[in-house]
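Supplementary material to the annual report.
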Amino acid sequence: MVTTKTDSNIKKAEVVDLTFGYTEKNVLNKISMPIYQNKVTALIGPSGCGKTTLLRCFNRMHDLYGEVRYNGEIKLYPDDINILARDIDPIEVRMKIGMVFQKPNPFPKSIYENISYGLKVRGVKKKSYIDDKVEDSLKKAGLWNEVSDRLHSSATSLSGGQQQRLCIARALATEPDLLLLDEPTSALDPISTAHIEELVTELKKSVTLLMVTHNLHQAARTADYTAFMYLGDLVEFGESSQIFTNPKEQKTENYITGRFG
Amino acid sequence: MKQQVEKLKRQDSVFWIVGLLTLAFALITLLSLIVDMAMTGWPRISSEFFMNFPSRFPEKAGILSAWVGSLCVVFVTAFLAIPLGIASGVYLEEYSKKNIWTKIIEVNILNLAGIPSITYGLMALGFFVYHLKLGQSIITAGMTLGLLVLPIIIVTTREAIRTIPAHIREASYSLGATKWQTTWNHILPYSSGGILTGVVIALSRAIGETAPLITVGALTFIAFLPTAPVMATPPYVSAQWLLDPYTVMPIQMFNWVSRPQEEFHVNAAAAGLVLLSMTLILNATAIFIRYRFRKKYKW
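Predicted assembly:
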């Protein structure tokens, strides 16, 4: 793996020698990469390369489905904790790291209940605080103007693009350290996609983002850093401008020029 | 080419007709039974029929003790089977690890749903009546029917839960929710339509069940009501009714049918009509509930 030297960014998280698998076979092999604070990092690669698997390690989603094997670490700064450690509860991790999914998945409840759910599970009871947070998160997700007059109507009545922004707002309401985005625009039309991409660029002022994407142009447009993965290996990590214009690895070049994938 | 398509289309229409005929046969048989029963029984339906105890005289005989008994027994059944069934279903679907033991339990629950109901009666006779010495009482009957419908509630609960897509669960977990929070705030409310449907269908089965109750000793001639659960003097509430003898609708019917006098058969048809209406109303409720919840929860 080749890592290009980058300027003195602050690390928000760091993957160190991460090997992951469900059974005997490894799905991820010795992945190491930094995640820089207030930047967008994109994970790209062909289907089955392990990019979503890597993303789901960050909030221990794999733990929901039985025994899994994590070797190596994902360090979260500034607390310097290894979120994969056995003694760290996955729930504790998910309290710090939010996630937005491929398909918009609002709860079949009201918009308000959707956004406030993260606070509810944390035991927040103060109505005025929740109200403020709901408004604040919806504003951050660029949805406030569209829904402010119908916060108590069902979230499933929104359009696909609105639903996805609602899911982003829902994840933001609890002020996560890191926001994971799993192909957030793959189910959306081009206009909604442009909306989300704009939003991602805007959001990095306040949160660190890690995004899986199938769309190379999307990574080039929105990500500050890009990691190219292939068959469970991290092939190359670097600034997006370098990865897309001057890749160091032959495989990366072949992929981004469309020779395979 | 054209000929072959014609031939295939003929095959299609043949099956269409065969299907329609079989369907018509089933429906007509059922309908004629119902119509026959309704025509025989309808003249007997009156307020006295509902408010009279059974009697030696067919024209004075009513179903008061039978429908009150049915209600009491179904109440006990619901009280036991609903919480147990839903909790078991949720446990199996959300909490248990998927291994060989849960597989065995799963298969056995499916088998239990298909066991002849009289077997439950025999088990209950040995355990509830003789071992626990509960006698021929409402609580024995309620518990027996509770066991009988438990598998139905478990299976429908699991099916209802399984229709909730994984990404809804993941949304909840990704926000830091615990298993219990996810179950309580999402899984149960979103599956409540399916669960309620299962519950109503289970109860309507319990209302019509006869064989196990004959085994555990439902009486066929009851000319009194169970003890009232509330009263005017201290201690004001009483659970004595649970230990009272009882009869239920289908047994009352059975009793009248087995009498030689023609007039009692009319009573039986009338009671059958009432019983049929009770189950039809319950099933309609189930359909209504399912429809309402389908509209409310979609993803």
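Residues 82 and 88 of chain A are 8 Å apart (CA to CA).
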